[in-house]
Amino acid sequence: MATTSEHVKCLIIGSGPAGYTAAVYAARADLKPLLYEGLQPGGQLMDTTDVDNFPGYPTGVHGPKMMEDLRNQAARFETDIRSGLVTSVDFTGPRHSVQIDDGKHTITADTIIIATGASAKWLGLPSETRLREAGGGVSACAVCDGFFYRNQDVAIVGGGDTAAEEATYLAKLCRKVYMIVRGDAMRASKAMQHRVTQTTNIEVLWNSETEEILGDQAVTGVRVKNRKTGETSEKSITGFFVAIGHKPNTDVFKPWLTLDEQGYIINQPGTAKTNIDGVFVAGDAADKVYRQAVTAAGTGCMAALEAERYLAARGIH
Ligand code: NDP
Asked: For 65-70, which contacts have Cβ atoms below 8 Å and span 24 or more sequence positions?
């Protein structure tokens, strides 16, 4: 197999809002960043329809259009944007080494910004996939999409902190929220559970699983099965939210970086620094709490500024 190698000052891995924002800052600081797009160029926002909460778009924007804008902005400052997958890394340093596409290409870099994001977990039902792809009312982010269901009835699946938090968020906007919990208890913290049970327009459907999301082009209802009695029932809804966890895309870094028990990269508090000098993290790969495009972009900026300072402190120009 033909292999090539090259050295860069700054390698950015990932092409969501964190990666592209890091690229804009790094390129403007003359770090000549090289950015690898990864498996899903554009990241989670490519699966989103309308984005109404990213500053600077007063009338909203489609997720894929926003990612195109971010990509163009990074390209305008001459970020070298390439397709390819990071398949292994060696962070022995001081120059870190990264294999692209199973060693077809080797990059060494003085600084690396990891912005590989996280992927929402889905139930895997055919009706979920179909309606999600049609942009017809299936979402994994209540904060992003809840607004579109104001004064309507919706359902949310999950019993963890995310589901509890998003159910209470939706309850403020929507008429009624069905919370579909597969067991007879919630995994969410007691405080979050308390908030759910104190919210009068949330109805928890215990021991319940989603059999099918109903609707051709858009969600019109959900059929739920009680796992104890086997009974099924249908609820009329227009929005279906899935909050059953995320998986951070960090497996490749596991041998080198300190991760938490769910695989999120642990950054030094208030910084983008990881446990390895010269390796920084931005966006959802290190964030299981906020998970917003704007917070990802913010930490992308932090990571690039820290990479710039790191290089300056070592006299690397
Ligand atoms: P969790 O993994 O904590 O919870 C996932 C939930 O989804 C569980 O209730 C689980 O059920 C349920 N679930 C999983 N698979 C399915 C399925 N196929 N069908 C139906 N239900 C399913 O994920 P979260 O995203 O809620 O939280 C991730 C981490 O982030 C946690 O550590 C959490 O504490 C933290 N977090 C903290 C917040 C905060 O501090 N404000 C806010 C949000 C998250 P079961 O319990 O039966 O396995």
From this structure: 66/293, 67/15, 67/16, 67/17, 67/20, 67/41, 67/42, 67/43, 68/42, 70/17, 70/20, 70/21
Q: How many C-beta atoms surround the C-beta of residue 196 within 10 A?
A: 21
Q: Which of 185, 180, 269 is nearest to 226 (CA)?
A: 180
289 CB near ligand 1 (under 6 Å): yes
Q: Specify the ligand 1 atom closest to the Cα of 183.
A: 47
Domains (range + CATH), the chain:
4-119+246-313 (3.50.50.60), 122-242 (3.50.50.60)
pLDDT tens readout for residues 213-261: 999 999 999 999 999 999 999 999 999 999 999 999 999 999 999 999 9
Q: What 3-state DSSP class applies to 152? A: coil
Q: Looking at the annotation, which residues are catalytic? A: 141, 144-145
- pTM more than 0.85: no
Position 167, amino acid:
A
